[in-house]
Amino acid sequence: MSWMNTPQFMMLERFLDVNAMRQTLVTTNLANVDTPGYHTRDVDFQGELARAAMGADTSLTSPFVLPVPGLISRPDGNNVSVDRESLLLAEVQLQFKAATAILRAEFAQLNTAIKEGQS
User: Where are the domains positioned within the chain?
Assistant: First the structure.
């Protein structure tokens, strides 16, 4: 087993993958705010992380993209809310920063272990 295949690294990898996909969906939703008939899409972020935590092999599957229920549609059929998408974009950015900080800390620990093993 490679040192990179630890449960922590695999969970962080999945977290970042789903986070990146969610950012793409949010920006796509914002880009289509004026497209008649466009419906907001999102990924079940918590569900995807739960699947990864349960040990499901998520490396070969992409997250489930779903329409967002309960949003108010305008007369042209578009239901994109700029406020909702802007809030989600900020959330995704904060989650990405937190995950990369954890990843940096994991690599710093490995680096320290390697350096102390050499002396």
Answer: 3-118
Strand 65-67 with 41-43, pairing: antiparallel
* DSSP structural state of residue 2: -
Q: What is the pLDDT of residues 28-71, one digit of tens each?
A: 999 999 999 999 999 988 888 888 777 666 666 677 899 999 99
Between CA 69 and CA 91, with CA 29 as vertex, the angle to 5 degrees is: 85
98: closest CA among 10, 15, 7?
15
- The 3-state DSSP composition of the chain as helix, strand, coil percent (nearest 5) reads 60, 5, 35
Please give the pLDDT value at position 55.
Answer: 67
> What are 43's strand-pairing partners?
65
Name the band, by pLDDT with cuts 50, 70 and 90, for residue 88: very high
